[in-house]
Amino acid sequence: MAADSQGSFGIHWFRRDLRVAGNPALQWSWKEHSGRVVGLFCFDPKFLARSDFSPNRFAFFLQTLLELQTELRSVGSDLLILDHGPAKAFPFLFEKLAEKGSRPSTVSFNRDYEPFARERDSAISELLTAQFGSKLHTERDHLLIEPHEITKDSAGLETYQIYSPFAKRWFEKLKTPEVIARIEVQKKGLQYLRDRDSGKIKQDLFQLNWTQLLGKESATLDQLEPYLLQNSKLASVPIPKAGSLAALRKLKEFKRLALERYAEARDFPNVKGTSQLSIFLKNGSLTAAQIIAELDLQTKTFADKSGPSVYLKGLAWREFYYYIL
After folding, report:
1. Average pLDDT, integer, range 267-277
2. String of DSSP letters for 226-242
């Protein structure tokens, strides 16, 4: 019987939310289990087999995972990275845990919106609840305003197909108390990052790691190092610093140097006129809500043509892309 098998614990399934700061589903699990939560990431073969697969882009992704794993371990938790898609990874992991006499009480994850992701999440949710009896908990995270929250009609059946009318509604929704609260809560996440940057974070913020659950076998199960080694032979360009701290520093740099002149400077490739935050947004090292909170964009209007407002319209366009999907 594993030493920690008697206590309630949760698994947080990381996907497009590769950070600790302001991660709502991870935070829920942390509260639910008094800090006894560990992370899981599953390499999906379909992702690695894509025709547009890039070793350089993958190198940045792997560095993001490494930063997250290092951070979780530094605060008392852990991240296990398995070389299976979730349909195989969860049964495999639950079997390993059962051998040690333990099973998670909950599995948490933040919602995804692309068609493939929605089908995957539906299938995995059925697997976890029907086969393993796990309690699931999901949260909104990757988008500030989810697709179902903006429709032309009250019944939610008629959707926008053109950006401008969608964006006007998005800006209206931005001013509602519900959405303002989402932005305000992310200020705590940003403060966590600042505290971490200055070394003020407690090392026992979490209370459980994979070694406690699986023993020495957890080290051999984790596949991040082999991926890093293999892909390092293929990457051909310098890789930017990854992770949520790097994202925060880049956000501060943008705020200081380029935000006010963004409306004009973004169109000129010979100047640093853009935010350069898209690589962090893609992996969830940073979210739109955190950007809006840090740059104080929630007061901007659709009609405004200033740099901050034009940048906010870009974030609205990003959400429109997921809305259309």
Report:
1. 93
2. HHHHHHHTT--SPPPP-
Spatial distance between the Cα atoms of 98 and 122, rounded to a whole number of angstroms: 24
Instruction: Decide the pairing of beta strands 37-42 and 135-139.
Output: unpaired
List residues bridging with 80 in a β-sheet.
40
Quick one: how far is CA 288 from the chain centroid? 11
Locate 225 and state its tokens: 């190092």
**pTM exceeds 0.85, yes or no:** yes
Query: According to DSSP H, which parts of 210-306 are helical?
Result: 210-214, 217-221, 224-232, 244-257, 262-265, 278-283, 288-295
Task: Please name the residues in contact with 64: beta carbons below 8 A apart, sequence gap of 6 or more.
Answer: 18, 242, 243, 283, 285
Edge-first strand listing for the sheet containing 106-110: 79-82, 37-42, 10-13, 106-110, 135-139
Q: In the beta sheet, which residues pair with residue 10? A: 37, 106
| 298 residue type, one letter | Q
Environment class of 170 (CB within 10 Å of its CB; exposed 0-12, middle 13-18, buried 19+): buried
298 Cβ neighbours under 8 A, 6+ residues apart: 174, 175, 179, 180, 183, 292
Write out pLDDT tens, residues 158-204: 899 999 999 999 999 999 999 999 999 999 999 999 999 998 988 99
Identify whether the C-beta of residue 208 lies closer than 8 Å to the C-beta of residue 4: yes
Q: Given the structure tokens 């990874």, which residue do they identify?
A: 89
Q: What is the DSSP letter of 128?
A: I
Contact between 301 and 174 under an 8 Å Cβ cutoff? The reply is: no
Q: Is 136:106 a contact under the CB 8 Å cutoff? A: yes
The CA distance from 47 to 43, in Å, is 8
Token pair in block for residue 276? 């350069």
According to DSSP, the residues that pair with 11 across neighbouring strands are 38, 107
- Residue of 233, 235, 295 whose CA lies nearest to 259: 295
Rounded to whole angstroms, the Cα distance separating 277 from 25 reads 23
